[in-house]
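$ fold --in a.seq
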Amino acid sequence: MNLLQLEYFMTLARLGSFRKTAEYFFVSQPMVSKQISLLEKELGIPLFNRGYRTVALTPAGKIMFDALGRSRDIFDDAVYRAKLSSQPDIIELCLGFPECSDFANLSNILSSFQQEHSDVALKVRVSPISQLLLDYPDSKYDMVINHERNLRNKCELEVRPLAKRKHVAVISRHHPRYRAQDTAFEDLKDESVYVPAPEGTTLTKDYLAYICAHHGFICHDVIPLPNLESVLLAVKMCFGIAVLDDLINLPPDFELDTVPTNVSFEVLLAWHKENRNPAIPLLSDMVLEQLNLPSTY
């Protein structure tokens, strides 16, 4: 067992695809498959159920994924502290990235940034979107990618719009109201709507009411759950629907689909005005240049 195998394991579990995992690491798909197989052979347990186009964690794989996820931040911090101690001139930059999201080709841009700026220790921390806050100087992030609604103290922040996206309803393909491409958001007006409940989450009850009002109805049954995983599980069981954003990467084994709404939102790259980290303009300029976006707002 080695760190590369564990990185392949964590990324494959998150993306649910050997192809996407190989693209993420810029290696061949057989290379990822071989390393995962070696890891399973060494552990003596299957970690993934392999389908035709997707893979899903086995119960043993989920236990391992959860355990490794809890320890990952501790490991990352230890590695970067070690790097900083051996290279006193290195600049550390921490970017907060929303979990379960898939936005443009940012992973490729971040990889290019690390190659071009060897004096910058770039740490990408994947977190729930409600936790990607910039309360300088106490924030653990230098920069975050977040929705405009989630960012507090906006007058104290520098922001750059990256894209305009839409909210979507998430529904099980086995739900009686699901009709593949013919399902409209208005068709789901009588459904219970599940939302992640932590304070600061992207879809509060008031904002959900705003989305429904744009489609001419009132949402009467909003059910908060403690996290995104619980919300998606309730949708999988056909208890109702969820309203999230279209950046969501749905678990392939849950058999879920999305129904678009007509309400859009902006994805922002943000940092605090008081944060003088010299690596911030380097990263923001590269991201905006690669996405062909203006550097001023």
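$ fold --in b.seq
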Amino acid sequence: MKLPYKLTGIAFAAYMAGIIAFVMSAVLTAINTGMGAGFLVRVLHAYAVAFPVAFTCVVIFRPLVVFLVKKTVHAPPAS
């Protein structure tokens, strides 16, 4: 099942936040507590906090990021 096109921004935010939050949770957990026993459980606990924060940030800051990219990247050449 696919989502309606109007939810593209929300789908993008969910995927981006999910991937970044998981990677950051794993890296920071490894740095702070090591990769010993219970590592995955600790990562998932950190992820449970990180994902909602990351998702909210992506949704809120996406318009700002799109604006900044348009100001700093040349438009594609006309065909």
